[in-house]
Amino acid sequence: MIIKKAQVLVPETEIDIKKIGKLERYARVCYKSEDKMGQEYSPGFLRNIIKRGHESISEHEKATVMFIVDRGISHEIVRHRIAAYSQESTRYCNYSKDKFGNEITVIEPYFFLERPEAYKYWQDTCLSAEKNYMTMLDMGCSAQEARSILPNSLKTEIVVTYNMREWRHFFRLRCDVAAHPQMRQVAIPLLLLFRERLPLLFDDIAYDESFPEEHYAEILITDDLFRHSI
Predict the structure, then answer these.
(1) 31 has pLDDT over 80
(2) Helix, strand, coil percentages, rounded to 5, for the chain
(3) Cβ-based burial of 9 (10 A; exposed 0-12, middle 13-18, buried ≥19)
């Protein structure tokens, strides 16, 4: 199966504006200025803290999302150290089983769409890998042995938890023009969502505005990550 676009599933409660108010309360401990807090959070106070580089305060809150991307992109995601990850395992997932549709699933590289010859090489290679993977399983190889020939384009689901400071670091690196195209494909629309919901923490982070919006990954706001997973 070919998935046309990567997806990012975001639980509604993970990007709640209430997190901002909590951060102000924690930050004011440093200056013993709790008495200056009002009923609502102070945008100026928090913005000044971030601007001055006092980003450690943002480590007190976190957000969890699920990326549905190819294995190559997941390898880049897990390079972020201050994190928790739970990922679909090719050691234990046997794609010849009914629950996987008796097939492998791959993410379509958008940059081949207007290059039919390259697209055909990619597609034929994925089909060959799928055929040989299934043959190896039929020969008695285990899933963890047969996975050796699975392509980088193989779909994977990975649940990612970063504190807000690490999300800032993630977006700075992964939304930049130098980032891998398929990484920008998921990171840029996710940043735009974070900027909309939590502007004080994320609206200062730049991104590659030249990246074509029609290739943005699908961002799904959900109250249940697993109800929507592939």
Answers:
(1) no
(2) 50, 15, 35
(3) buried
Residue with tokens 């739970």: 86
pLDDT tens track for 166-181: 999 999 999 999 999 9
Q: Report CA-CA distances (Å) from 150 to 94, 95, 120, 154, 172.
A: 12, 11, 17, 7, 31
User: Which domains are seen in the chain, by residue range?
Assistant: 2-88+154-222 (3.30.1360.170), 98-149 (no CATH)
User: How many whole angstroms separate alpha carbon 211 and alpha carbon 112?
Assistant: 15
Which residue of the set 174, 184, 195, 227 is catalytic?
174
Between strands 62-70 and 155-163, the pairing is antiparallel
Pairing of strands 7-11, 62-70: antiparallel
Three-state secondary structure call for residue 123: helix
- Mean pLDDT score, 121-150: 96
52: annotated active-site residue: no
φ, ψ for residue 229 (rounded to 5)?
-70, 155
DSSP characters over 155-219: EEEEEEEEEHHHHHHHHHHHTSTTS-HHHHHHHHHHHHHHHHH-HHHHTT----TTS-GGGPPEE
Full-model pTM = 0.89
Residue carrying the six token digits 């690490």 = 166
